[in-house]
């Protein structure tokens, strides 16, 4: 790949002294309090009813993390948050994931499935239990077609309705705790960017700037960071 230069090459590189040795900033607890997730789930249930649904299904992703605080990922093994319009939300997951997921501050009851079992049948069974009896199920907007098809095969009586409005409405409002974290992240990002800019020298490449910015962000936030730098002639 051809290198791009901020200015004509003149030796040197990028100065990282004030980045590498900067003391990590004091950080607020990046985990939101459990009350925030409880309020989100309660509002979600209200919106399920308003949308004339009886339950809401959400797979791992940004929406799942928003509702649970759990950093889960999608795979060939089903993990899903099942939220009835009334009653206790449930987290459906493989049995071997129970301990890991239990370490997080969950507000949902965990229901597990074994390798020889059909997890979509488990979801259908939970929806048909007497206390729930859900038929109209709102699916979080990123639910894939394969999951939808397998749920439909597990119980053909289910009315599976893709729905983006419910989560969009929830996430458009920020709590004071969320706002504080967002402002803190913005401040750290500005500080990291300014530190990198101050260290630029003739001959620096895009890759060097991106690496320096990643290091500056990570040293301040305590979290792995991603950065991209693009400049100069194409």
Structure at a glance:
This protein is α/β, with parallel strands linked by helices and 234 residues long.
Structure characterization notes:
- The chain has 234 residues and is α/β, with parallel strands linked by helices.
- It folds into 2 domains: 1-29 and 175-234, no CATH class; 34-171, Creatinase/prolidase N-terminal domain (Creatine Amidinohydrolase, Chain A, domain 1, 3-Layer(aba) Sandwich).
- It is 42% helix and 12% strand.
- It has 9 helices and 6 strands, in the order ααβαββαβαβαβααα.
- It has a 6-stranded mixed β-sheet with strand order 4-3-2-1-5-6.
- Helix 6 (145-154) links the parallel strand 5 (136-140) and strand 6.
- Helix 5 (119-128) packs across helix 6 and helix 8 (176-198) packs across helix 9 (206-221).
- The N and C termini lie close together (12 Å).
- 26% of the residues are buried.
């Amino acid at each position: 790949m051809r290198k791009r230069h901020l200015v004509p090459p003149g030796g040197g590189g990028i100065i990282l002294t004030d980045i590498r040795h900067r003391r990590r900033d004091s950080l607020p607890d990046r985990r939101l309090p459990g009350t925030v997730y409880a309020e989100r789930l309660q509002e979600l249930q209200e919106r399920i009813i308003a949308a004339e649904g009886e339950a809401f299904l959400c797979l791992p992703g940004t929406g799942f993390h928003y509702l649970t605080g759990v950093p889960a990922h999608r795979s060939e093994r089903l993990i899903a948050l099942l939220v009835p319009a009334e009653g206790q939300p449930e987290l459906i997951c493989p049995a071997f994931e129970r301990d890991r997921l239990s370490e997080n501050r969950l507000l949902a009851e965990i229901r597990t499935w074994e390798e020889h079992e059909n997890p979509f049948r488990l979801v259908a069974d939970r929806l048909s239990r007497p206390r729930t009896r859900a038929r109209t199920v709102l699916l979080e907007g990123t639910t894939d077609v394969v999951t939808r098809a397998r749920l439909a095969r597990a119980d053909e009586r289910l009315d599976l309705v893709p729905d983006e409005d419910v989560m969009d409405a929830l996430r458009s409002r920020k709590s004071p705790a969320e706002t504080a974290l967002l402002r803190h992240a913005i401040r750290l990002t500005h500080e990291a960017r300014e530190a990198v800019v101050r260290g630029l020298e003739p001959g620096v490449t895009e890759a060097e700037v991106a690496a320096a910015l990643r290091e500056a962000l990570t040293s301040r936030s305590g979290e792995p960071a991603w950065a991209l730098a693009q400049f100069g002639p194409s």
